[in-house]
Amino acid sequence: MTNDLSTVLVTGATGHVGSHSVQRLLAEGYRVRVVVRRPEQEDDVRTLAGPSDRLEFVTAALTADDNWDKAMAGVRYVWHHASPFPFTPPADPDEVIVPARDGALRVLAAAGAEGVQRVVLTSSYAAVGYTPKPGDRYDESDWTDTAGDLPVYIRSKTVAEQAAWQYTREHAAPELAVINPTGIFGPLLAPRLSASTGLVRSYLEGASPVVPRMYFGVVDVRDVVDLHLRAMLSPAAAGERFIAVGGPAISFYQMGRMLAEHLPARADRVPATELTVEQVRAAARTEPALRDAALLGGRIPVISNAKARSLLGWQPREVATTIADTADSLLRLGLVG
């Protein structure tokens, strides 16, 4: 892909997707402006991205208007990744929902005011497929029902994306394209774990001998970034959302089998037992970490990536390759005991 040295603004650049985004955009020849919450985060991003005279920074927060005009000045495209992800559910759900929603609206408003052409918003499959439906087949026409009893992160992603689409219906600019990734795995660029990569580490260390019968979509972080790039450049992507999933849904147990096959020396550490749906539901009453598994209830969702493939020519990696590359990066970075 080629470009005209356009400037792309990236939020959430210290995260798993964001760090790969900055690296890919620089490799493609773009100028990259990164929004950080604190100036000291600049060093983290520079370490991940490598030396470049096309990388610059602005300090701004999702919860305040300060500096967003400066951040957007001269920018053609925005990749908005940043969104709260609580490892422990807060007592007040608005601690997560409000920054996610208002942050997305703040980015869109600032982008529109400064003449940005297109914002590519990183939403989540959480906004698509967490409301059961007959047949369990999901595509971009589906929405999670926020009226249900859902974990706060799922609600926050759904509310934020819905607010973003409402904003674009009421304002002429900027254009909006949305990416809805399933579980994001793939190689780490630095020794900083995400929820997904931390799960792989726990398997390799033997910390999860028993897993719930739960099926989920997997996508490679590099393919998520590639889909952002395609959604940024394609005229057909304006006003569209795209599910990012690498292939058929897998279970926690199946992921363990993939790791055992790739790393036979650690095969005795990966999960060997799978809880039944009834066992998961019973355990979820006292174990909050199993709530998602109980919610999904052993369903095997059929998650379509046909739209991204047909409209944007997207070709994701095989899931087994993604899981293997995740494990290799954890070992390379010394994150597995």
From TrEMBL:
Any single Pfam family the record assigns to this protein: Epimerase
Coiled-coil regions in this chain?
none
Report the Gene3D superfamilies cross-referenced here.
Answer: NAD(P)-binding Rossmann-like Domain (3.40.50.720)
Transmembrane annotation, as ranges: none
> What InterPro entries does the record tag this protein with?
Epimerase_deHydtase (IPR001509), NAD(P)-bd_dom_sf (IPR036291), NAD(P)_dehydrat-like (IPR050425)
* NAD-dependent epimerase/dehydratase domain ranges (all copies): 8-238
Q: Which domain of life is it from?
A: Bacteria
Keyword Oxidoreductase listed? The answer is yes
**SUPFAM superfamilies according to UniProt:** NAD(P)-binding Rossmann-fold domains (SSF51735)
| Record keywords, A-Z | Oxidoreductase
- Recorded family membership: Belongs to the NAD(P)-dependent epimerase/dehydratase family. Dihydroflavonol-4-reductase subfamily.
Write the protein's name: NAD-dependent epimerase/dehydratase family protein
